[in-house]
Amino acid sequence: MQLSSNQLERFHRDGFLVIEGLFDRDETRRLRARLPALFAEDTPANIREKSSGEVRTAMGLHERDSLYGELVRDARLVEPAEQLSGEPVYVQQVKVNVKSAFSGEVWQWHYDFATHHSEDGVPEPHALNLHVFLDDVTEFNGPLYFIPGSHRHGPAPASLDTVTTSYPLWVVAPEHVAELVERGGIVSATGPAGTALVFGDTLVHASPNNLSPWDRPIFSVIYNPVSNALTRHQRPDHVHHRDTRPVRALHRRQGHGRRGNREPPRPLEAGRA
Description:
Layout: H1 5-14, E1 16-19, H2 25-33, H3 35-39, E2 46-48, E3 55-59, H4 66-71, H5 75-85, E4 89-97, E5 107-110, H6 112-120, E6 128-133, E7 144-146, E8 158-161, E9 169-172, H7 174-184, E10 187-189, E11 196-200, E12 205-207, E13 218-225, E14 267-268, E15 271-272
């Protein structure tokens, strides 16, 4: 699947793209059905919330489950990443960020390259984060917040926060976030199950607590150009994978709940917050 010229223009302007209907509900239902067993595994790859103990992030899923192993090679994800990168990509990180009902905790304002560069020695901010909503994401169950255009102002100053949540994160200071919001505003990325997000390594984003009675599982795969691979191996493999061989796109047959070679779905404007 190739992004259209309009989608490419929007991505470079805003730093992100929202695509509704990239996956259908049967696909997301089957992916969601695998999660309880994966969350029940006693593994460091399941990171739990600081307060509730619920799974916050389940990592390395493509190495733990065959269906997620297929998903990271799906052409609907791999081909746009290759198109935007201009070269082959490897699978840098695979996870589901859960945001459990009532207890899903905040993700602070941050951008991914601060962590990739500081922790893993990734040279340049060329990695891409591709999300798939595994259930409906609304204004009430902890959607992602993006600051449009924040990637165009250069990497923001960031510092390591090891206190706020159970997942240490390189975060952007409130005063700098306020400056970026003054320039670009805030949008919330919502949509039905099967909606996809694509965003770059320096786009500033966050998400609030989930106070609703609805879970918010979102699949995430980070692809990094092979030429931009990590140079340090201080974090575990399930956090940043060390196999930097190019991922080969898996093309689905048309039908059976697959989009096959149909026209790419239309992009949506993210809702203003």
